[in-house]
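Lecture 7, part B: from sequences to assemblies.

Below are the input chains for today's worked example.
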Amino acid sequence: MTPDAPDPDMTAAELALGLLDGEERASALRRVLADPAFAREVEEWRQRLAGLFDDYPEVAAPESVAARLAQLDQPAAPAPNRRTRWPIAAMVTAIAAMLALFIVLRPTPPVAVAPHHLMVASLMMSDKSAAVPAMVDMTTGEMRVGGAAMAPAGKTAQLWMIGGDGVPKPMGMLASTGPSRMVLPMEKRRALKAGIMLAVSIEPLGGSPTGLPTGPVVASGKLSIA
Amino acid sequence: MRAGQEDRAALQDVYRLTSAKLFGICLRICGERSAAEDVLHDVYITIWKRAGAYEPGRASPISWLATIARNKAIDWVRARGARPAHPIEEAALVADLSPDQREIAERDQESQRLHDCLDALDERARDAIRTAFFDGVTYAELAERENVPLGTMKSIMRRGLLQLRGCVDDA
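Predicted structure of the full complex, as structure tokens:
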């Protein structure tokens, strides 16, 4: 690019960074509302730059803030116009669980370990009563699913993945109580990517006799990169 | 009331796991401790009220929380109209942002790629992007700090961002 060429249009990045003010900012915000492609670009820039959050130094937060938060009342009822509004309880719990898994699995210094590539999902119960966190360490194939009593006595909860072909593939049985842990073979691991649906169905003890879900689906959620 | 107690316990967990990072962000951008505390409180109230807006497919939970903290802190600074005359009181504000070995070891692949791509930019563009991100400043403030005309600042920034996008998306 020659010095005389006009500047490239980087408005989405400028908005994501917070560089704009006044009318320029107002105009970019209006564009977010009016132009879904532009809105997506802004979101992509947020994600592209998110790695810089790593460089902010941590500073111990004051206890007084934690104490004030402990006094909170239940949030008001969710706005009715949100299509995919999840119950607050479930979501805060899921975020807490994901963060816990995330932090536990970070390599501890000074051992230099290849970064563990994690995939996570929140499996929303079909009755919306809770969200169960699920996590796969793509490096080791270890999969963990948070504890939730999903299956009635005499039945078992079976985990499935549903990819682009729409055909459910069995991943394993969930423990009847407490969290589940399983190791996925390489072949299954390779098929996992962001956007794949995980689902739990209720099956006879020992798992579905047909290789496909036979009972009701009680929880599901999409996999994403942590 | 049991569900409410569980919620509060979960929020406390989120606070315990994330508040040091989010407070670091608020302090850096606000430039003073009491304001950073108020903003931090506001951040967790927002998370509490808007947990339902979190979409697992779109970002990691830490990035989602950090983005809320950064935006709230920027809002606070801009609502007040001016930055403090003597912002450098806190260790975090003068801290060198160059990461230590431990932080580098903890970076995931995407973060590492972003850092590599930033390193590949020329120094002025890299500094401009990093300052804009960490301090949450506008073009006008950035131009003043760097002592260059506004148009020059925008040009450096835009060309740097274009190059950065090409590098990050290409890898």
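Note for the exam: Confidence is low (pLDDT under 50) at residues 76-86, 106-115 of chain A. Keep this in mind when comparing with the next example.
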